[in-house]
Amino acid sequence: MPCYTPVIFFIFRRPDLTAKVFEAIRKAQPTKLFVIADGPRNEKEAVLCQQVREVTEQVDWGCEVFRNYSGTHLGCRKRISTGITWAFEKVKDAIILEDDCFPHSDFFPYCSELLERYRNDTRIFSICGSNFQEGIKRGEGDYYFSRHADPWGWATWSRAWEFYDDTMSNWPLFQESEKINNIFETTPEQDYWINIFETLYSSNFPDSWFYRWQLSIWMNSGLSIWPNVRLISNLGFGEDGTNCKIPGKLSNMELHAGRISKLNPPAFIMPEKQADNHLFLFRHNGALLIEKRKYGKFYDWLLRYRRFRSSPLRFIASNLGKILK
């Protein structure tokens, strides 16, 4: 059965990954496909960009295709944000995938059903496909509500994307009013996000559309939906990645092994606090930040002690110069 929800597919310079994700899209057979490409920064990337675009030319199912290819390099933030805005000038909702976000086959019907179910519920801003709960089911439904969004395979409506503020124009007022303090359960998490937003606002670093989207959601008291199983795996960790260059616990995570036959809703439209706390600890390295805050200037000594405990000979060999001093 074809996917009647439009799909937005962002591509750049990675033909192998693009081919894997495009094959998953081909199997889902969306009736509308938006292919949005950033432009190259040099001649080497120009070759790769062309190869990537050729991959997406292989549309062999009934599909209306819209293409938006940039001739110059816009960067992650500008390309994705302008691409979504462009697509939402033509459709009212969409499933959004980047070239390294590999979807489970149930990701498409999951998004389609929830886009329809919450179409007119303005509390809901996004539908995520990821899951970082390490096997813990949250709530009584097949999905749960969260304060947090996620950029790795998701869906939304034009009515929600209208609130995206690329300039973060209200950030100073939001921070001054201390309303951001009401969002977080712990001080370390609050400090983590405030630091990100202050850096974004003052220096436009990092080149991220997602942090701006997350702030826009919080400024409007929005919620996101997360599945209780993992429907997206990020395959893009590596040297050619834009933001994710070092493989780790979040890379190539195993997808849900079964199928989703029915999406039973939670009893209440409220954020699952335990899930959000766990997301901070696991997804955003919150456990490390809390430990650093706890031990302060002694944190480096704690790390050395742990390395010594785990491998005394290796620790002594690597620190021999310091020991002899």
What's this, in brief?
The chain has 325 residues and is an alpha/beta fold.
SSE order and pairing:
Blueprint: E1 7-11, H1 15-28, E2 32-37, H2 43-55, E3 64-69, H3 76-87, E4 93-98, E5 101-103, H4 107-117, E6 124-128, E7 143-146, E8 154-157, H5 158-161, H6 171-176, H7 187-203, H8 210-219, E9 223-227, E10 232-234, H9 273-283, H10 286-295, H11 299-310, H12 312-318, H13 320-324
Parallel strand pairs: 1-2, 1-4, 2-3, 6-9
Antiparallel strand pairs: 4-8, 5-10, 6-8, 7-9
Helix pairs in contact: 1-2, 11-12
Could you characterize the architecture of this molecule?
With 325 residues, this protein is of the alpha/beta class. The chain folds into two domains: 278 residues, Spore Coat Polysaccharide Biosynthesis Protein SpsA, Chain A (Alpha-Beta Complex), CATH 3.90.550; 29 residues, no CATH class. The protein is 41% helix and 14% strand. It has 13 helices and ten strands. The strands form two sheets. Strands 3-2-1-4-8-6-9-7 form an eight-stranded mixed β-sheet, sandwiched between helices. Strands 5-10 form a two-stranded antiparallel sheet. Helix 1 packs parallel to helix 2 and helix 11 crosses helix 12. The longest helix has 17 residues. The termini are far apart.
Instruction: State the name of the first-level CATH class of the largest domain.
Output: Alpha Beta
Strand content: 5-15%
Q: What would you say the CATH architecture of the largest domain is?
A: Alpha-Beta Complex
Q: What is the terminal-to-terminal distance? A: 71 Å
The tally of structural domains comes to 2
Low-confidence segments, given as residue ranges, are: none
- The value of Rg in angstroms is 21 Å
Assign the CATH topology of the largest domain: Spore Coat Polysaccharide Biosynthesis Protein SpsA, Chain A
SS summary, helix count: 13
**Mean residue pLDDT:** 90
CATH superfamily of the largest domain: Spore Coat Polysaccharide Biosynthesis Protein SpsA, Chain A
* Residues in helices, as a percent range: 40-55%
Estimate the global geometry from the Cα principal axes: globular
Secondary-structure element series: EHEHEHEEHEEEHHHHEEHHHHH
Oligomer description: single chain
